[in-house]
Amino acid sequence: MNIKRLAVFGDSWVYGDELIDPELRPQIGDECCHHTNTPYRLKKSFSGLIADHFNIDYENYGHPGASLQSTMWTFLWWLRQDIRHEDYLVLVGLTAADRQSWYNPEHQQMGDDPDWNKYIHSTWVNFGSSVIPQEWQKFGKDYLTLSHSDELSELNYEQAVYFFDGISKSRNLKLGQFNLFQQPKVLSADTLWWPDRNFRDDLAIRPDRKEIHAPMDHPNELGHEIVSKQLLSKINDVILT
């Protein structure tokens, strides 16, 4: 096998939101983003399970609230790094197309905040996050009023799918992309796996759905195992053959 590392991109599903080490829960509660929980979150997420299957290291560039736009920006940051990109297996989880992100050049790095994370996400504004400065809250609400639409969601989705498909071919990357949320339209691209399906709906209609979801509807450890097995079957069929 010529895959030496794994890199994954996407939103909170990719990040591993709500995966919390039971031994740490008495100290950190539901704060899965706490730095002491990072090893557990990374290991138990579907990407961690895939990396463990192949016995390779991996890098998780998922982030809660991320949009298709911020996922593309983060991927471009990764492409600029002085590494052998052809040694990687790249997995891209496509989030909801109605999300949007904006680049914040004044972003202040804090703690273990990664270099690529300089984004303001519409999901944070919509949820009334207290960490969003007032001017960005107004900006986000103006966007929602003036620009947000089904037509824009379709454009966001088309742009992301064709972007990742085109880059993978031009750079000869071993890349697969898949829908995490309901796609606004069905597209055809060589690197887009299961174009008419999405993992959120697939898990929601299972008879064991209550056992495989965390309280806020992200997959729990069992849910991530299900996702990892489906992705591994595709990796073996498409990437490794």
How would you summarize the topology of this molecule?
Elements: E1 5-10, H1 12-15, H2 25-28, H3 38-44, H4 46-54, E2 57-62, H5 68-79, E3 88-94, E4 101-103, E5 119-121, H6 122-126, H7 134-146, H8 150-170, E6 174-179, E7 192-193, H9 199-204, H10 221-239
Parallel strand pairs: 1-2, 1-3, 3-6, 6-7
Antiparallel strand pairs: 4-5
Helix pairs in contact: 3-4, 4-10
Features:
Rossmann fold; alpha/beta; five-stranded parallel beta sheet
How would you characterize the overall build of this protein?
The protein is of the alpha/beta class. The chain has one domain: Rossmann fold (3-Layer(aba) Sandwich). 41% of the residues lie in helices and 14% in strands. The chain has helices spanning 12-15, 25-28, 38-44, 46-54, 68-79, 122-126, 134-146, 150-170, 199-204, 221-239, and strands at residues 5-10, 57-62, 88-94, 101-103, 119-121, 174-179, 192-193. It has a five-stranded parallel beta sheet with strand order 2-1-3-6-7, sandwiched between helices. It has a two-stranded antiparallel sheet with strand order 4-5. The chain is globular. The model has no long low-confidence stretch (mean pLDDT 95).
